[in-house]
Amino acid sequence: RALTIWIGTAEASAIIRQLENIKSARPMTHDLVCNMIDQLGYHLVKVEINDLNADTYYANIYLSDQADKELIVDSRPSDAIALALRVEAPIYVTANVIADGTISTDQSRDEEEAGEFRDWLKDLKPADFNRSPDSLNDEEFPSEN
Asked: Helix 29-39 to helix 77-87 angle, to the nearest 10 degrees?
């Protein structure tokens, strides 16, 4: 299964820079946030992508101090991921988000469906565009069931 989250260019750049271990001369935004967390005596424990509502994902950043005082900070998943990567903190996804927000990565099934679609396109004729859906039989226009 794959979780696809649309993110902005800046967040994508921050994630890629970290994954590729690209350093900058001055702290970038996510580096600055990590530095602030550290200077305030906390460390990033984990990130949890925990909700999907109206095509928007939600995440929490879990912070802890030396006395195990926990802070939970609401975040966009992209920012939470960028921060977690910088400090090598675990990234979790809740079961409800996996159930509602993931797509199949079964490549063999995808290839099978693509082949069926190619076959359908090969047999398609211009006259087919002038027919009502009611006139198609089940072989020509199979249901999704």
From this structure: 60
Range of the domain at 51: 2-103
The answer as to whether 122 is a domain residue is no
pLDDT in tens, 32-87: 999 999 999 999 999 999 999 998 999 999 999 999 999 999 999 999 999 999 99
Q: How many domains does the chain contain in total?
A: 1
Which of 46, 49, 61, 55 lies closest to 93, judged by CA? 49
Selection from 43, 40, 58, 38 nearest residue 89 by Cα: 43
User: What CATH number is given to the structural domain containing 51?
Assistant: 3.10.690.10
* Residue 71 exposure: Cα atoms within 13 Å on the Cβ side: 14
What are the pLDDT digits (tens) for 121-145?
888 777 777 666 666 655 555 555 4
Length of the chain: 145
Which residue in 62, 69, 113, 53 sits closest to 84, CA to CA? 62
Residue 79 and residue 93: Cα distance in Å, rounded?
15
Within-domain flag for 29: yes
